Amino acid sequence: MAITKSKIDYKLYLVTDRDVLGSRDLVQSVEEAIKGGTTIVQIREKNCSSLDFYKIAMQVKEVTSKYNVPLIINDRLDIALAIKADGLHIGQEDLPLTVARKIVGEDMIIGVSASTLEEAMIAQEQGADYVGIGSVYPTSTKLDAKYLAPDELRRIREAVKIPIVGIGGINEKNVSELMETNIDGVAIVSAILGKEDIRSAAEHLSMLVNK
Amino acid sequence: MAITKSKIDYKLYLVTDRDVLGSRDLVQSVEEAIKGGTTIVQIREKNCSSLDFYKIAMQVKEVTSKYNVPLIINDRLDIALAIKADGLHIGQEDLPLTVARKIVGEDMIIGVSASTLEEAMIAQEQGADYVGIGSVYPTSTKLDAKYLAPDELRRIREAVKIPIVGIGGINEKNVSELMETNIDGVAIVSAILGKEDIRSAAEHLSMLVNK
Ligand code: NI
């Protein structure tokens, strides 16, 4: 993959969730979202065998490669290596960043989830390429997520130099006020994949984040 | 780790299962099993975060290193790399062997689960270091496992040159007749970790497999 880290556009960051999709095809849905303006894709799979995760990721990679959109794998460093993904996203319950970095080297993007300024600063110091900060709004897709105070997001934006992606409960109604905090992008699940017309949902959000 | 593949003793192969242990400590239990004669240890974790798996595996590795017993990680290639395990064990629903081998290289042991002669032959051709064949007896720890006919195990033993470890429902009552098939070792879960005195259960099985 010829993705240059410094040129990555985090603005409209799609995170997959097959529960939200219901019976619709994941690969086709990702393609629709990319046609609508998604700039980066993260595959998140839970309770799925390693083989299934690998197969799904290979299929999604065909689509992201076709559109030259970076592909990030959630949690599973082995899947990221196996499909030669552009990046790995790790949460606070995943492999430690320093351990992951030693294995994947400097070329792979590593993003880290953080819900406090302290976690974000540690991730930056340890060499994260970006941080996902959230939840910025209440969310139904991650029921255990804590809800971040708006002031905390501004403090993080002032303190952290690496790209920041807001995550959690972001939709077309709140995305504009969120972008005013000068974050680099928004991670979206339901507000794209939960819509009947995935492409037009992405188009609308793309317009709002690029205003 | 300075484990030489050709010198690995598969005779008494412990596979961990925290459900079987109940409230007892995994690391201490593994140490007891090693003191009783366990020759190789596989950590199998399901439904546990990557961080927890990593931490547990690091702790178990301290024990296996102390006794110079090889440590194998089930399914999760990333955890195997992160803790510099001696090996990785993959099932038919895990990453494909050829994909895993490219990532970990030749030094890491890769074992593959097989339930038929065909699967075992494919694993051997693709460079598996050993095959785990089962279930050889009915088992309660893996409810979906199919039960292998004794003749099938003999056919596999005749056809396959790499080490064979029998798995599934093996205990002190059936282990002696099983070793008569000339397999290289037996993988044990409950018949060691499910016993009150783990060390003496391992000692008894060790005596039986070495007869
Ligand atoms: Ni006895």
Q: What is the ordering of alpha helices and beta strands of chain A?
A: EHHEHEHEHEHEHEHEHH
**Number of helices, counting only DSSP H or I runs of 4 residues or more of chain A:** 10
Largest interface: A-B, 21 and 21 residues
Bin the helical content of chain A.
40-55%
The geometry of chain A reads as globular
Strand content of chain A: 15-25%
CATH class of chain A reads Alpha Beta
The CATH superfamily of chain A bears the name: Aldolase class I
Structural summary, described in words:
Two copies of one chain form a homodimer. Chain A has a single domain, classed as Alpha-Beta Barrel (TIM Barrel), CATH 3.20.20. Helix content of chain A is 40%, strand content 17%. Chain A contains ten helices and eight strands. The first copy, chain A, has helices at residues 18-21, 26-35, 50-66, 77-82, 97-104, 117-125, 150-159, 175-179, 190-193, 198-209; strands spanning 12-15, 40-43, 71-74, 87-90, 109-114, 130-134, 164-167, 185-188. An eight-stranded parallel barrel of chain A has the order 1-2-3-4-5-6-7-8, surrounded by five helices. In chain A, α2 (26-35) packs parallel to α3. The interface between A and B is medium-sized, with 21 and 21 residues. The complex binds nickel (II) ion.
